[in-house]
Design brief:
33% of the residues lie in helices and 26% in strands. By secondary structure, the protein is of the alpha/beta class. The protein has two domains: 174 residues, NAD(P)-binding Rossmann-like Domain (Rossmann fold, 3-Layer(aba) Sandwich); 74 residues, Dihydrodipicolinate Reductase, domain 2 (2-Layer Sandwich). Helix 1 links the parallel strand 1 and strand 2. The radius of gyration is 20 Å and the shape is globular.
Length: 308
């Protein structure tokens, strides 16, 4: 029986999840069913044949797992709401500093309601977190270094757009810093009639530079006529660890939304397996057995697929 999922919020990542599913649904081994989209405000009843509702209980086909993709500043409220309804969740929350607190908070809520919550199923935290854990398996000394960019940070871009009611178009670009492990942020905000005054621009600039997402990096804010030439759908980076005996390195680069959506989509399989084992609670991606992300009905089949 297929795992039933729904998408909560319909931004870039929500649309990317629907695209990922469209690529999977006609394959003979497709094991996931997308049953609907949940939006706070909606003027349509369907999108691409999927029911669109403002409350999960209105979906005609009840999902087992909600993929929560609202902006970072409000997605955790959605996660808690669904967990209290006994619905399992996957999110791509990206504030590293708050992950442990949310894990502790959601763990008891999920267990109390027989649900599973997976935090930070994206690129970083998420895929890169797993790499950092694994690199220490084969390289004993030193530490794992992550250098981000070049590319668009969806989380940082969303934060910028939420900083002021008159910011309509903006993008935060991450670039490698002066040495490995460091990065710089370049924020581009599109000027409109409400943002022409220099005092307003200076206030927005300082608010951004003092924000937790930006204050620890070398960050710059520019007001431009159009963000088109600066924008990008891509993101990536390099993770490496080395000592005198060995070196391991991973390079990741591609469409940020699609990669994040793919991570969340495949994580739904792991959630289903946690539910089947009654392993209720809140987990991070690095706590999940990697084999649980893949297709297959038994261990032998899964091991064969990854050519173990």
């Amino acid at each position: 029986m297929k795992t039933k999922i729904a998408i909560s919020s319909w931004g870039n990542i929500g649309k990317a999840i629907a695209f990922v599913h469209s690529q999977e649904m006609n394959k003979p081994d497709c094991d996931i069913e997308l049953v609907g989209i949940i939006r706070r405000e909606t003027e349509v009843n369907t999108i691409d044949g999927l029911p669109v509702v403002n409350d999960v209980i209105s979906l005609p086909n009840k999902p087992e797992i909600i993929l929560c993709v609202a902006p970072s500043h409000c997605v955790m409220n959605d996660v808690e709401k669904y967990l209290r309804q006994g619905l399992s969740t996957v999110d791509c929350y990206d504030n590293h500093k708050e992950i442990l607190c949310f894990r502790q908070h959601f763990d008891w809520i999920a267990k109390e309601n027989h649900a599973v919550s997976i935090l930070g199923s994206g690129l970083d935290p998420g895929f890169n977190s797993i790499q950092r854990a694994l690199f220490g398996l084969v390289v004993q000394g030193s530490e794992t270094i992550t250098t981000f960019g070049p590319g668009r940070s969806m989380g940082h871009t969303t934060v910028v757009k939420s900083m002021h009611k008159d910011i309509k178009e903006a993008v935060s670009i991450t670039l490698p810093g002066e040495k490995p492990g460091l990065q710089r942020r370049e924020v581009y905000i599109e000027i409109n009639d409400a943002l022409k005054e220099e005092p307003i621009q200076n206030k927005i600039r300082q608010d951004i530079l003092n924000h937790d997402y930006f204050k620890n990096d070398n960050s710059f804010v520019y007001f431009v006529e159009s963000i088109t030439e600066y924008d990008s759908r891509n993101h990536g980076g390099i993770i490496f660890r080395d000592d005198s005996n060995a070196k391991v390195e991973t390079t990741l680069f591609g469409d940020n939304s699609i990669m994040t959506a793919t991570a969340m989509y495949n994580t739904a399989r792991a959630v289903k397996r946690f539910i089947e084992r009654s392993d209720y609670g809140c987990y991070t991606l690095v706590e999940i057995p990697p084999i649980d992300f893949g297709k297959g009905t038994n261990i032998a089949e899964k091991l064969k697929k990854i050519k173990y």
